[in-house]
Structures are given as structure tokens and as C-alpha cells.
């Protein structure tokens, strides 16, 4: 007999919103916000039986897409005396 249940454990690859939030170490509300207020920003989700689910592979891909690149960070200008200009103070 074939089982009709879906393995929702983290090892199974399909996660509930609670599991996805825990996997990403973010609040569940953040996933809902990304989905409703910032459409297209958060990881891709799947609706299964009216319930929101996340594939672990989609979560991993989303994280990989959002890695910081330090190649684009401009160098911080330095004065001749060696002091950084990144937080220059105003004259007092």
C-alpha cells in the first residue's frame, strides 16, 4: 500500500513554515512578511493542501543568492596621517 503522507521533517526536504524559519534562524513572521509585503524577495514556497511549505533546496539556493560580496565594497579613504575618513567628525 502506498503512503499518502508527506515527510515534513528537515531530512525529508519539505518543511513547514515553522521548520523553514528555524532552518534559516529567523522568526516565522519574517517569512510571512517577505511573502506578503516584499513579494519576490524571500525564498520560493509551495502551497500543498492549502498549507505553505518550503523545499530545503529552495532555502539553500536563496541563501546562496544572498551571500555578501566584498568585491563591491569601496575602499575606505584614509588621510595622510593614517586616520580613516569614514567617520569624519564635524568641527566643534
Question: Topology of this structure?
Answer:
Layout: E1 14-16, H1 17-24, H2 28-36, E2 46-48, E3 51-55, H3 56-65
Antiparallel strand pairs: 1-3, 2-3
Let me know the number of strands: 3
State the share of residues found in helices, binned by percent. Answer: 25-40%
Described by strand count, sense and barrel closure, the largest sheet is: 3 strands, antiparallel
Contiguous uncertain segments of 5+ residues: 2-9
Binned strand content:
5-15%
Strand order of the largest sheet: 1-3-2
Helical segment tally?
3
Which structural class is indicated by helix and strand composition? alpha+beta
SSE order, one letter for each helix or strand = EHHEEH
| Overall pLDDT | 78
- Measured between the Cα atoms of the first and last residue, the distance is 81 Å
- Which word captures the global form? elongated
CA gyration radius, whole angstroms: 21 Å
Organism: Nocardioides humilatus
Protein name: Helix-turn-helix domain-containing protein
Pfam family, one: HTH_17
Account of the protein in words:
The protein has a domain at 14-65. It has helices at residues 17-24, 28-36, 56-65, and strands spanning 14-16, 46-48, 51-55. It has 3 helices and 3 strands. It has a 3-stranded antiparallel sheet with strand order 1-3-2.
Features:
HTH_17, elongated, single chain, 92 residues, three-stranded antiparallel β-sheet, 3 helices, DNA-bd_dom_put_sf, disordered N terminus, Helix-turn-helix domain-containing protein, alpha+beta
Structure described in brief:
This protein is α+β, with helices and mostly antiparallel strands. The protein has a domain at 14-65. The protein contains 3 helices and 3 strands; from the N terminus they run βααββα.
